[in-house]
Design goal:
Length: 513
Amino acid sequence: MKKMLLSFVITSSFFWSNAQNQPKKAEVPTTTLPEKVENLVSNIKFNPDEKVVTQHISIIKGKNVPYQATTGTIPVWDEDGKTIAGLFYTYYERSDVKDRASRPLVISFNGGPGSASVWMQIAYTGPTLLNIDDEGYPIQPYGVKENPYSILDVADIVFVNPVNTAYSRITNKETPKSTFFGVNADVKYLAEWIKTFVSRNNRWASPKYLIGESYGTTRVSGLALELQNSQWMYLNGVVLVSPTTLGIERGVVSKAALRLPYYAATAWYHKRLASKLQSKDLTEMLPEVENFTINELIPALSKGGFLEESKRKEIASKMAYYSGLDEKVILQNNLDVPLDYFWKELLRDKGFTVGRLDSRYKGIDRKDAGDNPDYNSELTSWLHSFTPAINIYMRNNLGYKTDLKYNMFGPVHPWDNSGDQTAENLRQAMAQNPYLHVLVQSGYYDGACDYFNAKYNLWQMDPSGKLKDRMSWKGYRSGHMMYLRKEDLIKGTDDLREFIQKSLPKPGVSAKY
């Protein structure tokens, strides 16, 4: 391969990558490929091993941060060393760091399980932000700008796209899809890929962190142990953003009860609570609801149909008080109000539904009657702004040009969810590795992976309580992607910086109990 041409791109706080306001066009980074591969690319074929490198400068926390962005693919191999897939990634590496051995590396995954890494890449931790307002709603013109809150000042970051997400693709069509599409299969091949990435980029000495969002939390929890056991790679931290249940079983009672604090947060946001609760701040009000949930609701639901009628009405009355729903509706649902029904019912009298992933968002259905919303109002809003931005950014800013479609959500089904013990995997990894710390970040208005279930995960993950000093939880006043709200973007990235800096051992401190 001939020498790669590099493009030097300087971003600034006023720069937006869009058609109406383009900076002076820079030389586009290119790779000169063999003629055979060039022909394949021109026919929308896929090269599983290539890269484009660009140089940039960003202003983060008021200081210049020069960095190199490497965008491309690295193969996935089978046991015989044959290429079966290629994973698309973007690697941001601060370029003025002399001691790479002490420089933290953050390995980032999103969820789905068929979702690309786009969400956290251009809205949270990466050096670029998409064009949205301060609450996360789309605005035009579409595009990207500098992220002054990126964690690139304290850590290098690689955003990884599993098979069939973004530009990642399977190359050997004879390879069974079960090789990739399942809880444990996903973890196995991604651990191998991470080993390759770390080796190619000489990052074995670096403190390493995994961050995952939504299903990505299942993924990184499993990877923490898989990396230790199969690659002998030990981590300093795992960050769970809007975590799933991580394979921790919820019984009928706990599943029904644990939703209530989320219902209360949503009702508070939409001003549907009684004045006594509504007058309190969100974080002042929620502990009262949490205490009721644990100490009264769970015991009451445990009695099921044998709960005394007077107690049933008492519990329904309190649930109505905390949820903003009518007591009659709660009784009709036997004290177990489904999530779909809540999203439809809370603002039914106003003619709106509320969003699943972020209940601050409102939707409009064809009719007010029914048991569930017609669509997810928040997701359509997010795709509105993210899809143009990532396509603009990849081509114009990072110089990666392809006719392949960037899969925001790729085909990964059927997905094998059996054998999900990822919470136990993470617990075991922490037990084996005294350096390993865990941070959970949750949005109060997330109805898919709600904040109280995230707390419940931490309580149940380690029954001994011996690891709790290395576990922490942070809450934010937004939804599933809590960083879309500017105030929470700032708080969330500051929390990540603090977590990274506190979990780095002091010189000479051994990994031992």
